Structures are given as C-alpha cells and as structure tokens.
Amino acid sequence: MNQLVLEASVIEREAVRYTPAGIPIVNCLLQHGSRVSEAGVPRLVDLTLSAVGVGELSGTLAACALGQAFRFTGFLAPRRRQARTLIFHITELQDIQRI
Asked: E strand or H helix at 98, and its extent?
C-alpha cells in the first residue's frame, strides 16, 4: 500500500502549468508539525514536503489559502522516472476546520 495522509499547510505554490496533453498541474511545498511517540519516546516532527496536485485537484490546490491547515491524502512517487527523490501526489484535500 502506498497512501499518505498528512495535516499540513501550503507554504509555497507555483502557478498552474499544463502537460503536453493539457492536464493542469500545480506544484507546492507543504509544511507539517506535530508531536508523536516513537518507541515510547515523545518526539517533535517538523518537516517540509514537495507535493503536486494533478487534474481537477490542481484548481482546488491553486485556490487554497497559503498557511491554512488542510488534510492531504495521496501517495509518494519518484519526482521523475529513475529519480531517488520523492514527491507527494495529492489526490484529496480537506479543509480540517470544517471537519
């Protein structure tokens, strides 16, 4: 299974661009902070993660307010074919203030 659910904020976002097939894409940078427990030891996690919204979701991602927290669902994939770096492909976006 390759599924990631992350509560985070969009801190940077590029303009909508289009693939040669005409599919809209928005790249962004997400920021997450939380307290978790690992092996019984509390830990603070602060991270930034590159993400992308493709297709219909790109419009929603392009319109969301910078700095506002959302729940992002999606999967991890290599940034490019044969790349070692990963990018989070967002497939769902929920406003957590409405949950």
From this structure: none
Contact 24, 59 (CB under 8 A): yes
pTM comes to: 0.91
pLDDT band at 96 (very low <50, low <70, confident <90, very high): confident
Distance CA 18, CA 4 (A): 25
Residues in Cβ contact with 36 at an 8 Å cutoff, skipping those fewer than 6 apart: 42, 43, 45
- Positive or negative, the Cα torsion across 41, 42, 48, 52? positive
Contact 88, 4 (CB under 8 A): yes
99, pLDDT greater than 80: no
In angstroms, rounded to a whole number, what is the distance separating the alpha carbons of residues 99 and 26? 25
Cβ count near 52 (within 10 Å): 19
